[in-house]
Amino acid sequence: MNRTPACPVSSPRRQDPPARLLQKVARWMPESRAEWGSAMIAELDGVEGRGERWRFAWGCVLGVICSPGRKEEVMAMANGWMQSISTRPGGAAVLGALCLVPFAVANAIVANRIEPFFSVLRPGAHTSGGEYLLLAVLLLLMPAGAYVALRPALRRGADGKRRFLVLNVMMAVLLVTGFAAVGIALGSEIYACDVLQVPNCD
Amino acid sequence: MQVIQALAADPVAWRHGYDLCRQTGIQAGTMYPILMRLADRGWLETSWEEGALGGRPPRHLYRLTSEGLESARQMKQGQLLVGGSNRGSKAVLEPQMGDAG
Fold it and tell me: A122 — phi, psi (to 5°)?
C-alpha cells in the first residue's frame, strides 16, 4: 500500500447526512488532533450501507467527544470562564440571576398549564419521576447561581484582601433564600400529595 | 489489548480504522481514542494512503512501532498489565466507552 506521512487535503465523495454530521463534529477536534478528524471523515467515505454509515459516524462523534485530552480541555475552558467571571462583578451577578430563569419558566408552565410545554413536562396525569428530577436540577441551579454571583467577592485582590460587592452578595442571598423557601414549600407539598396522598392537596 | 493484538498479527501491514473496527468488533467511538492514545505513547505509527482509487479520499493508516510490537509481545506473555508499574500502559488500552460490541 502506498503511503505518505503528510495529512492530505481532500474532500469526501459522499455528502450524505452521516458525512455532513461527521464533518461538522470533526471541526471540534483540537488543532493537535485535526489529523484524526480527517482520518474519520476519510474512513467514513469508504463505509457502505446507510445503517453502517450512520453507526460508524455516530461512533466517530463519540470518538471526537472522548478523544484523549478532551477532559483537560473542557476543564481549562471552565476554569477560563470562572476566571473571567471572577473579574467581572456585574457579569457574575447577571449570570447568577439567570440561573433563576429556568426554574421560573418551568414553574410558570406547570402552574398555568401552558401547552404544548406542559404535556412535555408532565406527559401523564400525575407528577413523574422525570419531572421530579428536572425540578431538582432546576432548583439546584439556584445555589449554583449564588456561587457564580459571589465568585468575584471570594477572589482576593492584588492587596490580598477580598472586596465586599453589595450587588453580588445581595444576589447570592436572594438565590439561596429563594432556594430554601421554594425547596421547603415544594418539599412539603410533594410530601403531602405524593407520600401521604392527602386528598385534594393541590 | 484487542487492538494491539490485531495490529501485531501482521506488524508489517498498514491497517485502517474501519478495518480494525470490523476485525475486533470494537466501535469507532472506542477505537479512535485507543488509536490516539497508542500514537501518543509512540506505540503506533500513522501514515496516509497514497493513490486512493475512484476519487476516494486517502485513508489514515496504522501499524505498530518497534516499541508497540515489544509491548504487544510482553502483553501476550502476560508481563504487561500486571502490577502497579504498568498501570499507565493499562490505561492506554482500556476502552473509554466500555464498548466492545
Answer: -130, 85
A66 by Cβ neighbours in 10 Å (0-12 / 13-18 / 19+) ranks as: middle
The beta-carbon neighbor of B51 closest among A2, A38, A58 is A2
Banded model confidence at residue A88, pLDDT cuts 50, 70, 90 = confident
In contact, A145 and A175? CB cutoff 8 Å: yes
- Report the SS3 class of residue B44: strand
CA B44 to CA B50: how far, in whole Å?
A: 19
**Range from A3-7, B1-5, B11-15, B43-47 carrying the lowest mean pLDDT:** A3-7
Look-up: residue for cell 500513522?
B46
Q: Do B50 and A3 touch (CB under 8 A)?
A: yes
* Range scoring the smallest mean pLDDT among A41-45, A139-143, A153-157, A198-202: A198-202
Distance in angstroms (rounded) separating the CA atoms of residues A16 and A19: 5
Place of cell 423557601: A181
**AA letter at A109:** I
Q: Determine whether the interchain pair B60/A67 forms a contact, defined as Cβ–Cβ distance below 8 Å.
A: no
Minimum CA–CA partner of B38 in chain A = A68
Contacts with B91 (C-beta within 8 Å, 6 or more apart), sequence order: B37
ipTM above 0.85, yes or no: no
Which residues share a beta bridge with B44? B64
Q: What is the pTM of this model?
A: 0.56
C-beta separation of B28 from B46 below 8 A: no
Q: How far apart are CA B59 and CA A2, in angstroms?
A: 11
In a 10 Å sphere around its CB, with 0-12 CB exposed, 13-18 middle and 19+ buried, how is residue A100 labelled?
buried
* A160-200 confidence digits (pLDDT tens): 777 777 888 999 999 999 999 988 888 888 788 777 777 77
